[in-house]
Design goal:
Number of strands: 14
Number of helices: 15
Helix content: 40-55%
Strand content: 5-15%
Oligomer: single chain
Radius of gyration: 20 Å
Distance between the termini: 49 Å
Structural class: alpha/beta
Bound molecules: pyridoxal-5'-phosphate
Largest sheet: 7 strands, mixed
Length: 409
């Protein structure tokens, strides 16, 4: 089925059907098969999948959870909704990932779990991090929201830890409008998450799921690299007026648990997700081609490129490039209708309250802070042709000023 056909079929199911049932089972089955996982459970956002797994691991008040200090605010929020405290680890300036040593130093007597993110799709050093975790008998959850299909020494990321979470939001490897999946290797964790979900997780109501389907259709028909900037402004405008189901509510960006947080994916989104998995190899091949193009052009021009560690086989969500004139470059890009991303623009991206509210101390993550000041990212989604990619990177070389080392600028 084409993507458009899947979106239309899913939309009809969401508007006329029950919103749950067989389509969701089928999507979860496809995910289990792709990852060879003990179980996979689909929710309406990635952060909800993380929350479910934290609960499944028994993380609660008095516990600490170690995580990168370069992430989306929704990650520490899920930890806080579970009642625990986030402890942040700084990132490596060349991979944007935490290191095993950084994780080891951040462990506290109260640490109950470790979250490892594969930033931009670059796999983190999983063996070394798992060794640190094993030394304290701690479970690892992988944040794979950027990394669908990435491999580490031949093995898919998302299969190393007890569990992993993925996102189906607009900017991710593939989109189901909104969406999230918990993919679990640990059978005991999987059983507890399934039980918790069956007992207490709601299905989205007809209005919400119909709006999500309409948004998916609008994105599919209207958003191209040249229309990206305008579309984002329109969607944000609609969002502020409550006319969109946005990815974060006002309550949430300020750090409170929103109502109706613990929700499943809808049947219509599951139809789209199953179809995406059926075509995943095309998606992966396209991303590899664009990464190779960006890397080649940047290298030839003497620009920095992300470090691909030995053993890493990334499928990247966006291509990060540090510049010394980030704000100016993004403004010029918008004027020239060049799609260029700004995230992460803050160590807890999307936070609208002071970072102290999230127990974040910038002094503990200086590299992450610098990365936020310098890194822009280039698009790699299906709508980016080789020509558009070439135009984007040529634009970058012309208007951007390379930052050779984000630690010293
Ligand atoms: C997008 C993202 C999330 C959250 O995904 P949602 O589906 O929006 O909840 C978590 N971690 C990272 C690194 C992300 O980029």
């Amino acid at each position: 089925m084409s993507r458009l056909a899947a979106i239309i079929r899913g939309g009809l199911l969401n508007a006329c059907g029950s919103g749950s049932g067989k389509a969701v089972d089928r999507y979860e089955q496809s995910l289990r098969e792709y990852f060879g996982a003990a179980d996979a459970v689909a929710y309406w956002k990635g952060r909800v999948a993380l929350y479910a797994m934290l609960r499944g691991l028994g993380v609660g008040p008095g516990d600490d959870v170690v995580m990168p200090g370069y992430t989306c605010v929704v990650v520490p929020n899920a930890v806080r909704y579970a009642g625990a405290r986030p402890i942040y680890v700084d990132i490596d300036p060349q991979t944007y990932n935490v290191t095993a040593e950084g994780v080891r130093q951040a462990l506290t007597p109260a640490t109950k779990a470790i979250i490892v993110q594969h930033s931009y799709g670059l796999p983190a050093d999983m063996e070394a991090i798992l060794d640190v975790a094993r030394s304290r008998n701690l479970p690892v959850l992988e944040d794979c929201c950027h990394a669908f299909g990435s491999r580490w020494h031949g093995r898919l990321v998302g299969t190393f830890g007890a569990g992993a979470f993925f996102s189906g939001q607009w900017n991710k490897s593939y989109s189901t409008g909104l969406g999230g999946m918990a993919v679990m290797s640990d059978a005991a964790l999987a059983a507890r998450v399934r039980e918790l979900t069956d007992a207490t997780c709601a299905s989205p109501g007809r209005l919400v799921r119909s709006v999500i389907s309409a948004q998916l259709l609008a994105f599919h028909l209207l958003v191209f690299p040249r229309t990206f900037g305008l579309a984002m402004r329109v969607f944000r405008w609609l969002g502020r007026r409550g006319l969109m189901v946005g990815s974060s509510s006002v309550q949430e960006v300020e750090g409170q648990t929103p109502e109706g947080f613990f929700r499943r994916i809808s049947a219509g989104q599951a139809v789209v997700g199953t179809n995406e998995l059926r075509h995943i190899e095309q998606n992966v091949a396209h991303r590899r081609q664009l990464a190779a193009l960006y890397e080649r052009v940047l290298r030839e021009a003497g620009w920095p490129t992300p470090l691909i560690s030995p053993g890493a086989d990334p499928v990247m969500v966006r291509y990060p490039v540090p510049v010394t004139n980030k704000a100016e470059l993004l403004a010029v890009a918008e004027k020239h209708l060049i799609e260029m991303g700004d995230w992460f623009n803050c160590p807890l991206h999307g936070a609208e309250a002071p970072l102290g509210n999230f127990a974040f101390d910038p002094a503990s993550c200086p590299v992450a802070v610098r990365a936020c000041d310098t890194v822009v990212n280039l698009p790699m989604h299906r709508r980016v042709s080789q020509r558009a990619a070439r135009r984007t990177v040529d634009f970058l070389l012309r208007y951007g000023r390379p930052c050779q080392d984000i630690r010293h600028e």
